[in-house]
Amino acid sequence: MSILSIRHLTRYRYKNPVRFGEHRMMFRPRESYDQRLIAYDLTITPTPTRLRYVHDVFGNCVGIATFTGSAKELIFDSRVRLEHTPLPAFAGVDGEVEIYDGVAPFAYDPEDLPDLAVSMRRQYADPDGLVDAWARQFVRSQGPTRLQTLLSEMTQAIYADFKYGRRLEQGSQTPLETLTSRTGACRDYAVLMIEAVRSLGLAARFVSGYIYSPYSGPTLGRVGGGHTHAWVRVFLPACGWVEFDPTNGLVGNADLVRVAITRDPRQATPLHGTWSGAAEDFIGMDVEVDVRTDTTTSVQLPMS
User: Fold this and answer.
1) d(C-alpha 199, C-alpha 118), whole Å
2) In this predicted structure, what is the pLDDT of residue 37?
3) How many domains does the chain have?
């Protein structure tokens, strides 16, 4: 078991005071059997007129802040303490339950299919079948393919064959752009893998959150630290939702902290909102994310 301390700081800077509209944020991690929230505190400067929380259609916690007045800076300072107890992927599964026959798309149980259908639907055009062809290279030409093997090899292929590049602009590349250029950020890799496994008839979702890098040095740490991170989860009947991080070649959720789980990356933006003023007033946005082990013993969860 590890206790992680996470700080996520976002600062917007302006030349002159501007007015702020509604801002929506996803900072609070999702609680589950493998991650338990110990403490959560969010400080917003200037103080919002109102701050409330809702659950979206996926069960993610969304904060909604409204403001009056004007200011030259808008700062969101989120601090989290979390008990993180990840399990090995496919734990307790014999490995022979999930197979892919290489001919027809994988078939889920009819009872699960209505709930999984939206996560199986393709989101991007693939007119020449390039994503489909790339995905099918992981299916054996003869005999059944174990889904655990297929998904692990696909994760490792993106990690080994593609060049990571951090992009600060909003949005993600299309799967075809990532596949053609062989470059992208974590969210681009996630979108490509999601579309690839959906082409094989599997249900997949986009995950946004944080990654803990337990090693030091530029060549030893996890890729994606210092910012929010993105990865993939795929539903396997014998295992449930299993996570895959193609940016780091990870199978399972070791070092990964879930904040938002969605059908599409546009639904998992950590922070977005509006402001009013002259366009030239905007100077820039700074984001700092720090994830580290925490040895303190307090287990009180403040209400914030």
Assistant:
1) 13
2) 96
3) 2
